[in-house]
Amino acid sequence: MLGKPLQLLALQQIQNAMNDTQKIPLKNSPSISIKEKLSWGIFDLGNVSFTIVLVDLVFSLYFVQIICARRTDGTFLLSLAAFSTQIFVAFFLPFVGALSDIMTKKKFLLGFFFSVCIIATTLLGTTKEGDVWKSLLCYSVANISFSFTENIFSTFLPELIPISFIGRFSGWTRAFGNLGGLFSLLIVYPFLSPGFTVSNTELLRLCFPIVAAIYMMCGLPLFFNLELQKKPKTHLKYSKALLKIFSDLKETLFLLFHNKALILYFAGSFLFFSAATILMIILAVYAQMEYGITGAQQIGVFLLIQAGGTLGSFIFGLIQDRWGSRRALQIDLLLWIVCISSLVFANTKPAFYAASFLIGIGNGSLPSLSRAVMSLLSEEEKIGKHFGLWGLSCRIATGIGPLSFGYLFMITHSFKTPMLLPLFYFLGSLFFVSFLPKIRRESNR
Q1: Rg (Cα) of the chain, in Å, rounded?
Q2: Of 1, 139, 169, 151, nearest in space to 67 by CA
Q3: Do the Cβ atoms of 379 and 386 come closer than 8 Å?
Q4: Which has more pLDDT, 102 or 187?
Q5: What DSSP state is assigned to residue 32?
Q6: CA angle, corner 164, sides to 163 and 169, nearest 5?
Q7: Are 48 and 215 spatial neighbours (Cβ–Cβ below 8 Å)?
């Protein structure tokens, strides 16, 4: 009963933001329709649904407990695949971003990776016990293509929304996306509730095509409705374009090292994404090992996270526009620090559930806040390259973070001690963000 009013509220807030932004023309761009902005926001619903259902919850448990039911190396293979996937994305993401700028093929590239992700995710539904390499291949392809899609998708933000409304719009669309993630969890709940057992394989396999269908339905409106600003067509061949990509990336890296704001933000992003990834990946295992939370209760934890994510996206989108990006980041990082402290020192289930809700608030606001700040810091003509390099550092972070946690766990054989690692990561990121200069374009709104 509460879900529908919340969803209507989310849509109303997005509509209000769209109506407000219509009053402020974008520099050097034609008028952007509400339909185009709404299509972009709906795409975020698919992004969150894919991440929370497939990456954070379903596949990891399905792979370890079903695909590798008769093996003992399932966890190692999964972590190796996750690390390799992120390193692959980190290496190629700058080239994809630069290619979208040079060849002016941003929408085409988005559609290509979007389609590959849907196909690979659907094929996961054909895997069963013993299909180790097939499932890892499909998962890796789906995750890689999703990562490319999400990064290119984020670069549309400054083309759609005036600078003064980026934080609010990004936060509110992410809130709507978190509501979608919550409803996606409810949709697949009947298939997950019997448990991750071999006898329940047929029902569990249905989750993958369902997630693919949700992702597809949320993404298609963008391709039908979004009309990008017309740019001069390039006559470069792909071979010459590739050489220009290397040249431009070299120049961008050189300029990056002379840009204090971007250096600070890249360093802070690396640390807070490392820490956030550790928590999202380990939370289900941590809940089981430290608090005895299993089965349907674990799904309840993720529902709490999604509910908190919806609230966090709304609140921090508004905080960013009212108080500025740096202060919003500082508040968000302080919230994460409180969450981890609660997890480390709390000893009761109610305290863990409360910490999970706070983690949801932090996790829901972090993606929208970070991509909005990156949009504000980037030069308009180099936004694809800057997002590509930023994506590189973030993807390396999402690989290094869990790897460092796992290494510390092997040494200590404890979950409590390694949980201090993301605490130090967040403290370090707060240090870098505190020295982030005030964003000039933001101060002129």
Answers
A1: 21
A2: 139
A3: yes
A4: 187
A5: P
A6: 85
A7: no
Structure tokens at 271: 């640390």
Chain mean pLDDT for the chain = 77
Listing DSSP states for 148-194 in one string gives HHHHHHHTTHHHHS-GGGHHHHHHHHHHHHHHHHHHHHHHHHHHHTT
The token pair at 445 is 């709104």
Asked if residue 296 lies in contact with residue 193, where contact means CB atoms within 8 angstroms, the answer is yes
Q: Rounded to an integer, what distance in angstroms lies between the CA atom of residue 161 and that of residue 41?
A: 12
- d(CA 440, CA 173) in angstroms, rounded, equals 24
* Residues counted in the chain: 445
155, 382 Cβ separation under 8 angstroms = no
Name the token pair of 387.
């997002």
| Alpha carbon separation from 336 to 385, 409, 444 (Å, rounded) | 29, 21, 30
Q: Rounded CA gap, 415 and 420, in Å?
A: 9
Kindly report, residue by residue over 125-177, the tens digit of the pLDDT: 999 999 999 999 999 999 999 988 987 887 777 677 776 666 667 666 766 77
Q: Which helix (DSSP H) or strand (DSSP E) does residue 293 occupy?
A: none
- Tokens coding 383: 């936004």
354 burial type by CB count under 10 A (0-12 exposed, 13-18 middle, 19+ buried): middle
Rounded to 5 degrees, what are φ and ψ at 236? -75, 135
CA–CA separation, 25 and 31 (whole Å): 7
Task: Tell me which DSSP letter residue 65 carries.
Answer: I
DSSP secondary structure letters along 194-215:
T-S-GGGHHHHHTHHHHHHHHH
pLDDT digits (tens, 9 = 90+) for 94-120: 677 666 666 567 788 889 999 999 999
pLDDT tens per residue across span 195-238: 778 888 999 999 999 999 999 999 898 888 877 554 544 445 55
Q: Where are the alpha helices (DSSP H) in 50-165?
A: 59-62, 74-102, 106-123, 132-154, 157-160
Q: What is the DSSP letter of 380?
A: G
Instruction: Report helix, strand or coil for 114.
Output: helix
Q: Are the C-beta atoms of 313 and 365 separated by less than 8 Å? A: yes
* 319 φ, ψ (degrees, to nearest 5): -60, -40
Q: Which of the 8 DSSP states describes residue 126?
A: G
At residue 93, does pLDDT exceed 70? yes
